[in-house]
């Protein structure tokens, strides 16, 4: 195993392009190391990106948008004063990952690129409209987060691509997001279903923008345009909540395993969608944080 | 296999070692630096027995490569006491008998110390959540939680 610790994304991309065999970028390592130790994947090349300047920075830009370094651990996101005010759902989703120790290292980008359909931060990133910079030999381009997942354990990144920044939109007026997951325990478990909702209201409390996403109910995280449409124009009355739950359940294409049957996951998706929508709505109204 | 030279700070001392890039920080601590306080319970981030701090951030040393320590500051359970003087948490763990076999104890002490540095006045549920990644097969947790809460109270009074 070759270990590299480049000082720029250009160098990281060049190293990845030149590498033969299996290559892994090392952000927090909480997936890479587990796979290495369990002899699931022993990379031939590991490219540690944490020594690239700025990779641990959280920056609020002049227009209210946020730029996060790709190695920013969950603990830094949670401890940041402003980020959680703007995007509580995204910060909570990241915070649900693992223990305090795992939070000390785990990153949004690692969670995304590991390619688990149950990755907790991905639905929240999708509904927030997060975009990523991807650097390769051709330069740097910007893509929406949902361009990355391809299937369990797979992404649409190609050899020589490295994600070089995380862009979170400005929160703007009367917006709120939320993420909820169902797990059989209270801590330290993988989502049986995860659901993120992001809403914007007009001054009368009518929903003008909505985004709904589910995790762990299909081979990749799903973004549900139908479910979002059921909310737009409503004030989150019972009828629209019921339509939301129906649309969320209808979108599910889950597997059955020891942690949840198809029927259970499908039902819970609807329940979580309703609950997450209520939290997002209250946050958008400024009622709760 | 090419080994890599690493210079880092462990418990206040500058240390240097050569390590295989596949070696974890936990292996380096135990096998190269002879600091066997951090334990390997699972090797996969689930049990917390290997907890250390890296630049004041609590992490599992089993999920970190030894080569990543270059230029960092690491604290293990061996660095908690001040010479012969035990840290208040260590004293309280003895007083409360908050350990039995002791495998989890180094990790719990490191984790609890890190909590109290960030939050000197945690609620019981904050302590329980903070330590959720530290498994103990012996004590049933209650004594551990009470020892941490009581240490926090004593330390607040003393300061
Ligand atoms: C005890 C434990 C509990 C966990 N609990 C949860 C949980 O509840 N929910 C959950 O979703 N996950 C959980 N995980 C999984 C893991 O912690 C998360 O997926 C985490 O976010 C991964 O981030 P990382 O920075 O550690 O990734 P790494 O392990 O560093 O990398 C993961 C993958 O991303 C790729 N990658 C990293 N950075 C880049 C980049 N800049 N560009 C391109 N590719 C990149 C790597 O090549 C690798 O394939 C848990 C893990 C452990 C050990
Ligand atoms: S040995 Fe590291 S968490 Fe169990
Ligand atoms: S005292 Fe035995 S594992 Fe905790």
Automatic annotation (TrEMBL), chain A:
Top-level taxon of origin: Bacteria
Entry keywords, A to Z: FAD, Flavoprotein
Record GO terms (molecular function): FAD binding; oxidoreductase activity
Domain FAD-binding PCMH-type: 1-173
Keyword match Cytoplasm: no
Protein's UniProt name: Xanthine dehydrogenase family protein subunit M
Source organism of this protein record: Parasedimentitalea marina
UniProtKB/TrEMBL annotation, chain B:
Molecular functions per Gene Ontology: 2 iron, 2 sulfur cluster binding; metal ion binding; oxidoreductase activity
2Fe-2S ferredoxin-type domain mapped to chain residues: 4-80
Keywords: 2Fe-2S, Iron, Iron-sulfur, Metal-binding, Oxidoreductase
Highest taxon of source: Bacteria
UniProt xrefs under Pfam families: Fer2, Fer2_2
Coiled coil (UniProt feature): none
Annotated InterPro entries: 2Fe-2S-bd, 2Fe-2S-bd_dom_sf, 2Fe-2S_ferredoxin-like_sf, 2Fe-2S_ferredoxin-type, 2Fe2S_fd_BS, Beta-grasp_dom_sf, Diverse_Oxidoreductases
UniProt-listed CDD domains: fer2
Protein name (Swiss-Prot/TrEMBL): (2Fe-2S)-binding protein
Species of origin: Parasedimentitalea marina
Source organism phylogeny: Bacteria, Pseudomonadati, Pseudomonadota, Alphaproteobacteria, Rhodobacterales
